[in-house]
Amino acid sequence: MIAAGGAIAIAVMFAIAFIQRGEDPAQQQPQPSAERDRVAASILFRVITAGGISADDALRTIRRDARIAARVTADIDVANWADAYARVASREQRAELLELAVQLIVTRNQPIPVHQYALLLDLSFGLGFQTDQLARLRELYGFDYIDHAKDARPRDADRGAGTLPLFVRGSRDSLELLRVLGIEGGASRQAIISAYRRLAAQHHPDKVFGQPETVQNAAAARFIEITQAYEALLSIYRE
User: Fold this and answer.
1) What residues contact residue 211 under an 8 Å CB cut-off, 6+ apart?
2) Which domains does the chain have, with CATH numbers?
3) Residues 95-116: pLDDT tens digits?
4) pLDDT tens digits, residue range 48-79?
5) Cα separation values, 32 from 36, 91, 165, Å
6) CA–CA separation, 114 vs 205, rounded Å?
7) Contacts of 129 (CB under 8 A, 6+ apart)
8) Are strands 153-154 and 112-113 parallel, antiparallel or unpaired?
9) For residue 105, what pLDDT is reported?
């Protein structure tokens, strides 16, 4: 009885303290699912708006099609937020988020800007999939990308870098592909991943956005070239 009475008294004291501070005890620690939804909504918002969709339309898409009602934080770093999402989500949930991002931006049945594709790459990396998962989704949904810095020319009109599909199997000599990533001689899957991440960060479209067209064109062509080589090499170097 004494122990029970003491426990009740302690509970009452905590409740009074929360009331005095104007806080709800249930709100002190966000529920994991609510936090995942907030991070997921923010990531989707960033990816969708990168394609030129207005903020209002992006929010409506997230609410209606993704059925996520969480609040959104704009102007986030997709790679960092994807990494945060990966820490509180299962592999299945991470795969679902990446596929959902693809579904929400290809529903218009139009090629997506290379800037938006770059964000999908960031998302895939942050979720722990590199680009393997994204390459499979490209094949599944059949979506393409365009280089908006070149007046929205399709990639098959680009010189050199845009003539091959991103996910190819053995269509170019592996040594040539390794040289594209700056790797000489033997290589491993991890070395390929490391080289690509370094080059992708260097030539990411965000780095030159707003600069002269010639600078954007060169960076976009290089970014596409190294991404093609990277995904082709991943299909060769399985482990």
Assistant:
1) none
2) 144-239 (1.10.287)
3) 999 999 999 998 655 788 887 8
4) 998 888 999 999 999 999 999 999 999 899 98
5) 6, 15, 39
6) 8
7) 94, 95, 98
8) unpaired
9) 92
